[in-house]
Each structure stands twice: as structure tokens, then as C-alpha cells.
Amino acid sequence: MIQKSTKPNVQPWQPTPEQEAKMRATDATAEWLCYRACEELRPYMGQWIAAQDCRVIASAITLDEVLKQLGDVDLGTVILDRIPASRSASCEVSMFAETGGLP
Q1: Are 19 and 46 a contacting pair, CB within 8 Å?
Q2: Domain ranges across the chain
Q3: Nearest 5 degrees, angle CA 28-CA 61-CA 64?
Q4: Which end of the chain is more exposed for a tag (fewer CB within 10 A), N or C?
Q5: Closest by Cα among 53, 101, 58, 54 to 82
Q6: At a CB cut-off of 8 Å and minimum separation 6, what does 80 contact?
Q7: Which DSSP category does 100 fall into?
């Protein structure tokens, strides 16, 4: 039987400036990806994509295929995401980003 823990297993973490810079390196690409219009993402519907420096650099049906396309690219500098196959799902996300509110 699982018992409730009385002591959290979370440790405080203070990243080094280098670690923080690496984590923030994809911020602009993440924002760029969130604000893409539905029409721009249509070619990638139902696929995995890799985005870096505000552009899609690889796409494929499976994540393994995308990773093979990336080769030795530092994955810490890449955003991996799956674009929904459903037109309405991806458009709702895009509309939310474009309007700043619920679709």
C-alpha cells in the first residue's frame, strides 16, 4: 500500500549562470512557435517538429525520425513538439495565442 509522504522529495536548486542561459536559449523559439498562424503549421499537422532559432529545422511522423534528422544537434537548443493532426485543435491553440484569450 502506498503511504503519504510527510517529507517532500524536492530539493532547492540554484542554477549556475551557464545553466540558466542554456535554459533560456529556447525562450524566443518557444514564443515564436506559440504565435504561428494555423496556416503556417498546416504542413506539419500530425507530425513531430524540431524548432531552433525561430524556425522549423526538422519534421517527421515519429519523434525517432525527427531525432535522426537532427543528428548531433544539441537537444538543449531545440524545441521538440507534436502538432495535432486535428485541424481544430491546432487552430484553437493558434487562435488562443493570436487573440490572447480563449477561442
Answers
A1: no
A2: 20-99
A3: 80
A4: N
A5: 58
A6: 48, 49, 50, 63, 66
A7: T
Q: In 3D, which of 82, 39, 30 has the Cα closest to residue 61?
A: 82
Which pLDDT band, with edges at 50, 70 and 90, does 87 fall under? Answer: low
One-letter amino acid identity for 85? A
Question: What count of residues does the chain have?
Answer: 103
Helices first, then strands: H and E counts in the chain: 5, 3
Q: Is 79 left (phi over 0), alpha (psi -120 to 50) or beta?
A: beta
pLDDT in tens, 56-86: 999 999 999 999 999 999 988 999 999 988 7
Specify the pairing of strand 55-60 against strand 79-82: unpaired
Would you say the C-alpha torsion 66, 25, 32, 97 has a positive or negative sign?
positive
